[in-house]
Amino acid sequence: MNDAPNDVASSVVDYEDLMAPWAYNAAAITLFFIGFFGFFLNLFVIALMSKDMQLWTPMNIILFNLVCSDFSVSIIGNPLTLTSAISHRWIFGRTLCVAYGFFMSLLGNSLSFCFCV
User: Fold this and answer.
1) What's the pLDDT band for 16 if we cut at 50, 70, 90?
2) In a domain, 95, yes or no
3) For site-directed labelling of 45, which of 35, 54, 60, 84 has its Cα 20 to 30 A away?
4) Distant-in-sequence contacts of 39-43, Cβ < 8 A, 24+ apart
5) With 90 as the cut, is the pLDDT of residue 107 above it?
6) Is residue 16 part of a domain?
7) CA 44, CA 116: separation in Å to the nearest integer?
8) Is the pTM of this model over 0.85?
9) Number of domains comprising the chain
10) Contact 73, 40 (CB under 8 A)
11) Are 64 and 52 in contact (CB under 8 A)?
12) What average pLDDT does the segment 21-47 reach?
């Protein structure tokens, strides 16, 4: 493992695969579909609710929060995870790894908070 300050490997040889190559490919295909549908369907709901003010009931506002959180996950998290699955490793460095973990936890907690309300 490379001991550089940003913890980025100098070559692919520095990392060993944690899964079989077919598992990375299956994960990449699955993540692509999750990201594709997560982006467009959540965007559709956001546009629909923004257009029709009769939909702004208290329950729908909570659901709108869920949709916005899920949309953010599809924009922020899914491309990074999909790229990593295609590359068979994390290629974005230690700082972005920590930021990715923070934002995915934050968005996941906002999703779970809505279910508790």
Assistant:
1) confident
2) yes
3) 84
4) 39/71, 39/74, 39/75, 39/78, 42/67, 42/68, 42/70, 42/71, 42/74, 43/71
5) no
6) no
7) 25
8) no
9) 1
10) no
11) no
12) 95
